[in-house]
């Protein structure tokens, strides 16, 4: 009862509350009370500072019993923290001689086994009860080790991802002998299917279906392999061999606006996946993409991207009543008969009017948020989808045109007679560099609505399409013989079957380091959290993609964001040498001290950084950062 009293009457934070009682006795009601919620997220505060490292802290990991936090750093040390007492309980000076990028507790009952991976190409495993020497040393990787992964049902097995393109599977029950890239512990080699420059950046195991292994590489494609289907092909003469990846063993996922045209020859990739993770049920994959945004893929319902698929349409007399603007961007398209577009309820109409006003004032982020809020309450309104598409087309951040295209498709599925949506769909296809589909879309518009054949807006759009077709043809001729990447047959097939995202999260900046994380907050995953190059961490609403809050957490870059598995507690780290713990505190008139008040300005600046000249960015990265 004393704890309950202090909870009600005194200033408190989660860490101090848990510290006051025996860990493990936290009952179900208390766990529920301290799960992540909007009320808690809006009043997070830095409640502890863990000091002990002498370099950037590149990796954090909560123990499986949720009591301890492990951290790895550029100082080659692993520190085990009792987070609720804010003290280090163990300091392991590893044999690493390169920046440490990953630390993992193996899923054993007492959380006594810890694995590490680093830039020196080595993997070490330690028994923290006897940590003088590692119980396993592995230098099978030929380049930096970026991530380790474990499975809850395999306490003796773990996996690693390296920049040599290899995914290793290591088993503590077997005597380890470091071998060549064609040995039996090399589960996957991306270079076999892409090229010699392929790098594995991150990986994750599905928590409920551990046969599924997700891999992120130095390209925008997230790959999920079924480990049961991978077969090792041994050579009787040498005793070595390679793993065979059957064609139906892997599924690819990639945002539609990034997927290349149907060609085996592509430009070298400019994006890389810096982190990926499954949700608690293993039904979604969350992907943080360097040089772009954060995406959720619905693994049960994901489909290939659709660029042009017009719904069936039967003309009616109402179509003749539509007044179509001559403006080439079709900003003033309107209809005099809205019988097929039901009037919105008053409270939804308020959201729409707010969005329209913000749109006209060029406050695109806020306008999109208001339209999104309205869509959540009225998901069958074609007007709301088209208004949001208009905001996307004017904002023009990475992926916005494609997001607008998706909204146009949704608007047309709800109202096939919506000519403004039809027109904007054609414009979006053109902006995406798909002039042939744009031309087909305009041709179908004229076929369905003949009175618009000589409309000024339609004529101007047709002219733009024709000019792009000529430019595209000239570009193809000019680049013949250019040094393009040639994909293998399997890689070409896998990429062309890649499935599209469900939700996109925009606002942070991920261009400077390639170890930047993104995670679900809470067991129910209602929120998404990620670090950013601006020294902040961002929290988004899971269902809408709207930004819930932004907090300042580092003087330069936040790389790691690891939510506690049970309670509302978040650990962050980055370029600074300390670790910060965040938890909810009492509401005050001033609000949380580290919260960012001007969200629009913060996000706008991040989008500008993402458009930094690649040469300047790469130079800065080489000089300043090690991720």
Description:
By secondary structure, the protein is of the alpha+beta class. The N terminus and C terminus are likely disordered. It has 14 helices and 34 strands. It folds into two domains: 430 residues, YVTN repeat-like/Quinoprotein amine dehydrogenase (Methylamine Dehydrogenase, Chain H, 7 Propeller); 162 residues, Tetratricopeptide repeat domain (Serine Threonine Protein Phosphatase 5, Tetratricopeptide repeat). It has a four-stranded antiparallel β-sheet with strand order 1-34-33-32, with no helix packed on it. Strands 2-3-4-5 form a four-stranded antiparallel β-sheet, with no helix packed on it. Strands 6-7-8-9 form a four-stranded antiparallel β-sheet, with no helix packed on it.
